[in-house]
What does this fold into?
Amino acid sequence: MRKKRSLLAVLLVVASVFCGCSNGAVQDTAGEKNDVPMQETDGASGTAERSENKEIAQDVQETVLYVQPEMRGEISISCLYAEEFLNTAAEQFMERYPNVKVTINSYKESSREGTVEDYRTYLNTKIMTGKAEDILFTSSLPITKYSEMGVFEDLSGYIQKTPEMNDKNYFMNVLQAAQEVGGEIYIIPYAARFDTLAFSAELMSEHGGNESDVQDLHFGTAMDLAKQMVDETDKNNAFLVQMNTVSYAHSLLKDSIGQFIDVNAKKVSLDTPEYIALLESVKSLSENGYFDTDIDFYNMEFYFAAECDYDVQAAYYSMDTKNGSNYCMPLTDAEGRTLVKSNPCVAVNSASENKDLAWEFIRYLLSDEVQTLPSIYGPAVSRKGLEAVAERFYTFYKEGNGGAGFGSEAEYKAILESWMEQINGCDMLDSTIVDLIDEENNKYFSGQQTAEDTARKLQQQLEQYFNE
It folds into this structure.
């Protein structure tokens, strides 16, 4: 059966090449073709459907020719805030292709209260009236809802046909982290931001911990271990983790999100004994002194049993196993997923009349020329870009520690690379949902309402959101 589907795929692709009608199959300005075969993309699959899609792509890769579109015309970009790397990339792109004009419409130059909600309303209006930009940066956007509405173009075909996009040049598991079950890819990361988890080296040593203690941990089980470490120590000012009740409940919910929210099925299960118990357990931890938001970091000794940090910083301090942290790793959830954040991602407007040109600009954003820019913050998705990031941040953190290094630059780079290879998904939970949950949870923790009322209100609000 798969051979028949593969043959059909070949015929369709060949037809598209001869027609030159979509996904980059257009003559360039000189009327010449770039006869480069499609490269194999060994991204993380995770499902049988993805595996079969990949096999089909491998069957046809020698047949498909990538043809750059005519580099002439105008494209526009919508983003919440101005980004230095984006402005630089646009200028360089226009220098390379003088017949292309790139316009960046940043909603605000800097953050202010209410900006995110205002931007969503502003962009929704432009989408509904057919005036939205060609390229959309996805920071703070309702990605799942936009994908279901057909706002975003499926970019999987572009990725497959772009010759340099392969495991030699890119972390393909990251580029394809947002792949849907059916193989569609609506958003692509230009940087990989993710959270990490580690344990206090000193408290872990007192606990007598070993590597078996940290096998198959996710946030919930890690916090169970951290609580044991706090309970066992005789040190004053030992705390669970540097979070307050709202952020801790937020992390517990995201850890087991499938138990409470099924975005695809539009199903909510928050008005349940399980969620009420989650809230009450967090409040109990707070009341028993496991959190402390009034720590004087400069004038007192303190210990956090567990630490949640961000990628590039955590990788550096993970090398200080004596006084820093033990067993630092990317944070996974209860389903074993290591998720890259969706904020540093980009999409193409499905209503754009310049999709091929828009893809060429995204392709440039992902090129080593842009990925190695100092203004790319966090792990870059190209391998050469990550090398530049490792060099830059290693120097930064080493200088910040008076020239003391906990390990070599090569070791630091190897840690980041190994963490990047572990990414197998993208956190696309709409920020609107997260904001609603945090707001109601805060009312409970501040004593304004009961856990039962909180769960009931959240159930109603999210059911309404899903049915809008």
In short: The chain has three domains: 2-66, 73-190+339-405, 195-338+426-466. The first strand starts at residue 36 and ends at 37. Residues 84 and 375 are 6 Å apart (CA to CA). Residues 195-338+426-466 form a domain with the D-Maltodextrin-Binding Protein; domain 2 fold (CATH 3.40.190.10).
